[in-house]
Sequence to fold (352 residues):
Amino acid sequence: MSMRGSRPTLQDIADRVGVGRTTVSLALRNNPEIKPATRELIRRTAEEMGYRPNPMISALMTQLRERRSAGRGRRAATAKIALVSRFKERIGKREFKDSFYRPLYDAIIESAAALGFGCDEFYLGANPVSGERLTRILRTRGIQGVLFFPGTDSPRTEFPELDWRYFAAVQIGSQPLPDELHQVSSDYGYDIEHALRHVRAAGFRRIGLAVTDRVDTATNHAWGSRYLFYRHSISPRDRLPPLFSKQSRLGDEEVRAWYERHRPQVMLSAGSDARDILVRAGHRVPEDVRVVNLVQRGEPGLAGIDPHTKEVGHAAVDLLVSLVHGNHLGLPTFPRRISIRGHWVSGASFPE
Fold:
């Protein structure tokens, strides 16, 4: 057998394995309709022969497949990704007290549109479905890319277990999902370390952390664990016990009692609650205590770390679309973890 030129083709692989060219093409795109043993044989043969797909041709074929799937209508249907949440209504229609969800959602919609994708939203808090049913719905709509949105209206609402063979999937943040899924999140460990370095460089040593358990859990305990490691590494006289509140939001009495007992020079927290509680108690910010917001998304008067939440949304869509275009379906052997680092922003609560 002679190969055409120096690069083997799909037909060369088909001849070597003894199957049709279409079977080779489907197998290299991880199509679940091809038997696993055949897919593995074709992949191994392609690797042995040194086959490398032409990215320009792959992109062109993806566009042709999308146009074909549009049917006989005059306009080609927009390719879709699925945005799955555990809320009780569409993300785009609701008001959030937390400043995290809206910019994240907007970034997802913007990025998807820029890459030629629409977004079908599934809010499971109001419409729980089985994994089998959601798999059928997504396949019927021709959706191969699934993005799992963080947050929930009820901890009891769970994401369904899809038939992962048919989908490329990306989760945002730490979710109750298989560890094998690709993940995109803020780099919370880096962010709190960056804040600690900035505060210490300004000469402060008595630095406290006050957050709710819920918020620390949302960081996959990156804040709590990194703070406790920092606490272990400093002089005993400067070690302050962190406040991990069991309430849904920091309470006035617990914050006031913690502050008056330990008198930190600087308090690390999330949002504006800690500052507002201290001010209501008669303490001056920043004269008596400085406050650093570890998730500063435009709250007036607060210094802290901008986690670039919109970039998390952009990165999640970029990763998902690249997986769909490359036909990387199914649970990956080597899941990717992409984290977005934050940056310090100045504010009145921590004068430079």
Summary: Confidence is low (pLDDT under 50) at residues 1-5, 72-76. The two ends are 73 Å apart (CA to CA). The longest strand covers residues 79-86.
